[in-house]
Write a structure and sequence with these properties.
Layout (H helix, E strand, L loop, with lengths): L3 H13 L3 H12 L29 E8 L2 E8 L11 E5 L6 H8 L1 H8 L2 E6 L23 H17 L6 E6 L1 H12 L6 E5 L10 H8 L18 E6 L11 H8 L7 E8 L5 E8 L5 E8 L6 E2 L8 E2 L5 H10 L12
Helix pairs in contact: 1-2, 5-6
Length: about 350
């Protein structure tokens, strides 16, 4: 309410001046309640942006758990020594049956090479609940396609690791041995926008089987009615290692990667082979298959006298052949020579 004393004095002065109407209006205003101030709406609370997780420290080898609608998976992530500001390439490594992520890292020696070359290493680990033998389920149709099963789970984990480690998204690669090698072939082809190149050791081509019996037949080198014969999409650039004394996955399976390439749109292929000897005394044959532009689409290494084992691996790991040429070093050499070309925006 307005000050009544001041309003009364104003009304009296108006009466003295012979202005009774104005005096009455002044008194009415004094006795009228003042309008209540409008209530201010409380300011909307701003939701703070979530703080991104800290980038793993250089030289750290951490354990993690990734969850998605496609499943849950444990992993190990190695960040090489050196500057934490660099956006480094990342390699996804899929172990074989009965192996673990840590065992595979030890056997391949990839973490030591990662320090040398400046590469982040991601090791997904298959759980016994998904497969009692810790094999990747490459023979199941539900684990052979984009957007489903293990391919979707590994692709999601890879994107998670890229964000966590601040990796270079134009330099992402995937490799594996045995069941992990087949899974790498399937996943690399299912997500060509994510993976630039693929490394295969002692394995089969992607998606050639869909049953356990078909998988066993293919591993023994027997042709099955499930093997594709028509045109296929152009495969990712691939490097393959296989021992010609392998009794688990028949060495003839290495030829499947060339067959896959020949059935894809690539133009004329030019092949060149060379013989060599590793420091450990293993003879090998290395063959390059180039497309019409001169790009190596497939590099195939046959390790003579080697069995179902990672060539050049460390004795401390399982399924390794220390006498063979260094498959880990050669894979990194093949991978790091390739990166995804940036997509050019169309002129408006």
């Amino acid at each position: 309410m307005k000050n009544p004393f001041a309003s009364a004095m104003k009304a009296a002065r108006l009466m003295q001046k012979g202005r009774p109407l104005s005096a009455a209006l002044a008194m009415h205003g004094a006795l009228s309640p003042s309008p209540k101030p409008a209530k201010r709406k409380p300011a909307a609370k701003r939701t703070p942006k979530p703080t991104p997780p800290a980038r793993p420290l250089p030289g750290s080898f951490i354990d993690g758990l990734f969850e998605s609608k496609h499943g849950t998976i444990r992993y190990k992530l190695y960040t090489p020594t050196g500057s934490a500001r660099r956006r480094m390439p990342i390699v996804v490594m899929l172990h074989g049956c009965s192996q673990s992520a840590g065992d595979f890292a030890t056997g391949t020696g990839m973490n030591q090479l990662a320090d040398e070359r400046g590469v982040i290493m991601l090791y997904p680990e298959q759980s016994r609940s998904a497969n009692m033998a810790r094999c990747w389920n490459w023979h199941r149709p539900g684990d052979q396609l984009r957007g489903k099963g293990e391919p979707a789970l590994i692709a999601g984990l890879t994107r998670h690791a890229i964000a966590l480690a601040r990796a270079d998204p134009t330099r992402v690669y995937i490799a594996g041995i045995s069941a992990g090698g087949v899974a790498a072939a399937i996943i690399g082809q299912a997500y060509p926008e994510l993976f630039v190149a693929v490394g295969i050791h002692s394995a089969l081509t992607r998606g050639d089987v869909s049953t356990v019996s078909g998988a066993l037949a293919a591993m023994r080198g027997r042709a099955t009615s499930e093997a594709p014969t028509g045109r296929t999409p152009r495969p990712r650039p691939t490097i393959v290692f296989h021992g010609d004394a392998d009794t688990v996955v028949h060495p003839s399976n290495a030829d499947g990667f060339l067959s896959l390439l020949e059935r894809s749109p690539h133009g004329p292929l030019v092949s060149r082979s060379e013989e060599g000897m590793s420091e450990g005394g293993r003879a090998f044959t290395r063959t390059e298959h180039r497309d019409g532009k001169g790009d190596v689409m497939l590099e195939n290494w046959t390790i003579h006298g080697s069995s179902h084992a990672w060539s050049g691996g460390a004795r401390a790991g399982s399924y390794t052949d220390p006498a063979g040429p260094d498959a880990s070093r050669e894979m990194l050499r093949f991978f790091l020579a390739r990166r995804r070309k940036p997509v050019r925006k169309a002129a408006s």
